[in-house]
Amino acid sequence: MQKLFEEVGSLDTKCYEEFFLSEDILMEHAANGMASYIRANFSNKQTTLIVTGSGNNGADGIALARLLHGEYDVSLLYAKVPKSQMALLQEKRAKALHVKQIKEFQECDILVDAIVGTGFSGEFSAEITNLLHAMNTSRAFKIACDVPSGLTKSGTCAKATFCADVTLTMGALKKALFLDEAKDFLGKTEVLDLGVSRKLYESQTNWYLLDMQDLKLPARERKNAHKGNFGHLSLLCGEKPGASVMSGLAGLKFGAGLVTLVGYENQQLLHIPHSLMYAHALPDNTTALALGMGLGAEFSDEELQDFLKNDIAMIIDADVFSMKLILKILSRKNIILTPHPKEFVSLLKITELANISVEELQQKRFKYVELFCKAYPHITLLLKGANVIIGLNNNFFINPHGSAKLAKAGSGDVLSGLIGSLLAQGYTPLDAAIHGSLAHTKLAHNYNGSDFSLTPEDLIQGIGNL
Ligand SMILES: NC(=O)C1=CN([C@@H]2O[C@H](COP(=O)(O)OP(=O)(O)OC[C@H]3O[C@@H](n4cnc5c(N)ncnc54)[C@H](O)[C@@H]3O)[C@@H](O)[C@H]2O)[C@@H](O)CC1
Ligand SMILES: [K+]
Fold it and tell me: For binding K(+), which residues are annotated in this chain's numbering (predicted)?
């Protein structure tokens, strides 16, 4: 798990004031970090172009050009002339060493974008937009200095944004790098130290980035065991039973000892896989209940309320977010909600927390997750998206490991099954959400068919090899 920060300016200030490091020292380390990355990954026969802007992001780029000069065939292209004090100082140093400067974009092997970093605002001029177009269509390996140029502090992207293969970010990870919109521009991320170890640079935070290694699979350490030791996941089987069948199969494969679909007699029993049980009422020994997937209008309000007359841990998904019933559910403990953006917008409206569009939510995902978790501090929320956000009270976790492979009907039902299974096996709601989500993204990662071909069945099959 890595720490995430809203801004790093205050962390830089700590370096100046508490550790007596200067801006020059920090910048030299930033540039050195980028130079080390290039040395470690590319031979010095490869040509490097560094495109710089007028502020300190540009200054980082000019310092990098100086460090590589004499060793690599490196050229500097000023998208904007140096203006900040540090940029002017770096320019002076680069000039003294006769670092090559070019006036127009040229093809190269390694392309570094140091046009603008955390100081970006507005949109780019037509000239820089054209330059960014040439950079983005170049065949070079693309490195973003600190953040891809065009990414705003909140994580939204300008009309023209640099599209990096890797983002080498300074000091600590910024939250903005993990808004869904940024996902297409970021590439891989690496953090570069700025003259003190990252541990000392970083301070307290309540936002974290999940690593795949954080995944804790359900352990079966107990030797003298029977199926009743591993929980009983019950799922309400609604109008579209396929959804709860997929959840149920995922839940069973992920370790729940018993899985039961709960529904009416008229369900097409023959279509239900034999490994899942079927009942007309909630089994007494249920340890977790999954509610919402494919629910439709199968049950009346009173019937649904009957399922709530207990304190069983629950995972809530899909149709429930647009039902008034959700308000009752929100007063319960041990609840996980797993809305996608459209469902979360509906939830925000029903709870009268906000009346916003999906577009606004997507631009301010962090803000609205915080808003909801403040209003309902006892509830674990998992907001689906390209980067999943999980929040409980004042702690937030981003799972960035998902991929477009998962953009397929039924993926969410599998996720509900994974989370429900962990919940049934005794994980806390927060842990069930975190580890269910990590497992879900790992399943997609492990799938080695074509990206477009992953089905819920493939995900379920992969659970055995996690
Ligand atoms: N202690 C520090 O301050 C450190 C800063 N570092 C670097 O400094 C960067 C931040 O530097 P600054 O605060 O100078 O900000 P930036 O260099 O990111 O951006 C500000 C500059 O970009 C220009 N700009 C803003 N919007 C623009 C637009 N739409 N089109 C064209 N130009 C635009 C501004 O005119 C200004 O000159 C970080 O991203 C990082 O790369 C690193 O060297 C590490 C240490
Ligand atoms: K940049």
Answer: 57, 113, 149
